[in-house]
Amino acid sequence: MFSLGVKPIRLTYPFVLKSAASLCLGDLGRALHGVVVKVGVEFDTFVRVCLVDMLNVAIRNALVDMYAKCGNIEAASLVFVKTKEKDILTWTAMIWGWAIHGHFERAIQCFKEMMYSGIKPDGIVFLAILTACSYAGQDRSARTGSEVHSKNADRS
Q1: d(C-alpha 44, C-alpha 75), whole Å
Q2: Quick one: residue 126, left, alpha or beta (phi over 0 = left, psi -120 to 50 = alpha)?
Q3: Is 99 exposed, middle or buried (0-12, 13-18, 19+ CB in 10 A)?
Q4: What is the pLDDT of residue 91?
Q5: Which pairs from 77-80 meet CB under 8 Å and 24+ separation?
Q6: What is the full DSSP assignment across 65-76?
Q7: Mean pLDDT of the region 141-151
Q8: Which of 74, 36, 73 shows the shortest CA–CA distance to 58?
Q9: pLDDT for 45 beyond 90
Q10: Using CB atoms within 10 A of its CB, is residue 20 exposed (0-12), middle (13-18) or buried (19+)?
Q11: CA 59 to CA 144: how far, in whole Å?
């Protein structure tokens, strides 16, 4: 887009970040993150405030997801921590990030923080926690996995 002189709209960024994450193109994702920071959160005046907030959350979620999937869990964590209003997708992306990178304790801690924040886990979050438990390979992780499984069964 840039090489053609086309200016992307804010709606473009989450989709390109998701594509970068799917293809593990961390350099592209970092460059796009820089563009997002440089451009800021300014929109045309006709865009409603709720849309701005929704897109900001979508961009942050996409950044957490992209950094985690591309192997930069520290950058994912930094974006996550700086995100003031987290939704289920924000928490899920970070829990998955910790899980796939073998950080059992951090995934469990993030899960607990999500629960304390009042957000109820869905099936995807439970799957991420069970994944973290399976990667940990510890007796304690087996107990935690059993506890998570029983909580998920209680939801049904």
Answers
A1: 29
A2: alpha
A3: buried
A4: 96
A5: none
A6: HHHHHTT-HHHH
A7: 59
A8: 36
A9: no
A10: buried
A11: 32
Residue 3 DSSP label: G
Between the CA atoms of 94, 95, 97 and 99, what dihedral angle is there, to the nearest 10 degrees? 170
Rounded CA gap, 85 and 99, in Å? Answer: 22
Give which of 81, 128, 82 is closest to 107, Cα–Cα.
Answer: 128
CA–CA separation, 65 and 63 (whole Å): 5
- Name the nearest CA neighbour of 40 among 30, 55, 20, 26: 55
pTM reported for the whole predicted model: 0.70
Residue matched to tokens 């090489």: 3
